[in-house]
Amino acid sequence: MRGSTAISSILHSLLFFISSSPTSATPHQAPLGPAPAGIPFTLRNATLEDVDEITTVWYDAFRPSPLWPYIHQFEDEVGPLYAWTCERDSFLQLLGDEKRQFKAMVITVPDPTSRGLTTTTTREKVVSIAMWDFNQTRGQQKDKSSYMSPMLLPMGVHDSSRSSSINAGATGPPPTFNCSAHLDVNMTRALHFRGHMEAAKQKYLDEPFDTQLYLGLLATHPDWDGNGFGATHLRWGKAQLARLGGGGGDRGGGLMPLTLLATPAGYPLYASEGFEGLYNVTLERLDGKGAFWHEVMKYEEASAGVDEL
């Protein structure tokens, strides 16, 4: 189904942590060479000015996933810049809304290519992103009016309701895309995937836990994998449990957990950081070519001795 079906709600999306070579068809980050051990970096709040680099990290990290061509069945027909541009628009809406309890964090590194003859300043570039849902940390109900499907953020099923354009460096006027039509996406598959994953989150996370801090998105640009940036984001999340008091958790009175849904690619990282697998969710492909699986996971801090970043 390739209609103009609009999707409402964003947040508590599926967790991916994927390494791959970036594509060259979108505005992607220029490789800066091998990252030395102990490379300096900054972990900070995301800003609207970061949106292009956030979108590039997201695109280059998630496009190699087996789930990407399954959902983005028609990407070859409209071109990869369509998904990049429309998801950028969704990120802009998300970053610009201060009312929602949704926090985006980025890791930046020095970009030596930014130094010119007229300046000695080295700018920072975003190479890793994490998005956290704080809506349920105090027993709040999830926001039903969010921008796009809660389970589709990593797969780029945006909910932009307007036409968008971006100047990708070509001469002439930038292309304009009808983002509300979802022209690159097989919506039948996307909605089937969303329903299956939302049901799993509801059953295995939302119902058992009165409160939780949900990690909705984690991605590091492929050029910068292997520097521990994913683990750094997780340590930041663990520190929030101490700030929030850590109480309230499950309906039996346990600690508030960090929660997520992990792909096979992300599972080893989360397991190494102390996350516990709760349930393995299997989704049969509608094209009959196998299945996708994801692991429902939680982390509970047994003590308050967590490093703060």
Describe this structure in words.
The chain has 309 residues and is of the alpha+beta class. The chain has one domain (42-299): Gcn5-related N-acetyltransferase (GNAT) (Aminopeptidase, 3-Layer(aba) Sandwich). Helix content is 26%, strand content 19%. The protein has helices at residues 51-62, 67-71, 75-78, 80-96, 187-206, 229-244, 267-272, and strands spanning 42-45, 102-110, 124-133, 163-165, 176-178, 213-220, 258-262, 276-284, 291-299. It has a seven-stranded mixed beta sheet, with helices on both faces. The chain has a two-stranded antiparallel ribbon with strand order 4-5. Helix 1 (51-62) packs across helix 4 (80-96). The termini are far apart. This is N-acetyltransferase domain-containing protein. InterPro entries: Acyl_CoA_acyltransferase, Trichothecene_AcTrans. Keywords: Signal. It comes from Cytospora mali (Apple Valsa canker fungus).
